[in-house]
Amino acid sequence: MEALVILSKVEQEYLLHAIEAALPVRQSRQLCLWTQGQFQALLPHRIMVCLQFGAQDEVQHVECLHSTVLDAGLLARLGDKTDGLALRLARHCRDGVRLPAMLDASGAGEARLPLAPFMDELRALGLDNLLVHGTERLPGGSTFFVLFGLPHRPRPRHAYFFELLLPHLHLALQRVGQQQRQARAGALARPVSAREMEILHWVREGKSNEEIGLILGISGLTVKNHLQRLYRLLGVSNRAHAIARGMALHLFEQSIPPLARAA
C-alpha cells in the first residue's frame, strides 16, 4: 500500500470526472448511476455494498448497487443488515485489518491474507476478487464499502483509487441515508396503524378481503374500510400500488404484526 502510485493523465481525468459526478448525489438512484458509471472507470466491479453505521455502530442504512439483474438470494446474503457478508467483512476489518484491504480469490499474493477467512464463501458465490474500504469511527457515524467481483486481480493501484474516492463515497452515502430518513418521516400525514399494517402484510401475501377478515377475526367489509383509509393515506388507488408504496416507504421493514408471525 505504501508503494508510490503515479496517476496517468487518463486516470487523472477519470478521477476528476468521478469526483465531480459525486457532488450532486442525494438519492439512491443517483448513487447507483454514479457507482455504476464514472466510478467504474477507475474501479470496475460487479456489486458494491455500502453500509452506513450510527454513532453506536448500529447499521442505519444498506445499499446494494449493481447494473445487472441479480438473484435476490445473493443480494440478501451480501447485504443483510444482521448477518450479511458485507457486514461481517466490516466487523472483521474493524478488529484490526488495515484498510483498504484486498482479496485475490485465486490464492496468489500476500494481499489475500487479511481477508483469507472469507475465501471459500466468496468462491462459492462466484465473487472471486474483493476490495474493501471504510472510514474510521466518526461522531456522526461511519461508512464501509465492499466491491465484489472485480474482473481482475486487485492491485495496490486499485486500493489507492479507493482511498482517493472514499471521502466522496462517505459523504454521498450519508446524504442518501439522510434523504431517505427525511422522506420516511415526512411522507405520510400520520403513521400507519398496527391494524393497517397487518392488513397490508396480508395484501402483499395475496389474500382477499374475506381471507384477511378470517385471519384477523373481522369482517371482509371492515377490511375493505381499513384498506380505503390506507389507500388515502398512501396516496394510491389499488392493492398493487399500496404494496409498491409500502415497499418504497420501507413499511415492511418494521416489526411484523403478531398475527402475521403466527400464521
Automatic annotation (TrEMBL):
Domain HTH luxR-type: 185-250
InterPro entries tied to this protein: Sig_transdc_resp-reg_C-effctor, Tscrpt_reg_EpsA, Tscrpt_reg_LuxR_C, WH-like_DNA-bd_sf
UniProt KW Chloroplast keyword: no
Classification via PROSITE patterns: HTH_LUXR_2 (PS50043)
CDD domains membership: LuxR_C_like
Pfam families per the UniProt record, alphabetical: GerE (PF00196)
Keyword line: DNA-binding, Transcription, Transcription regulation
Gene3D superfamilies the UniProt entry points to: Winged helix-like DNA-binding domain superfamily/Winged helix DNA-binding domain (1.10.10.10)
Tree of life domain: Bacteria
Official protein name in the record: Helix-turn-helix transcriptional regulator
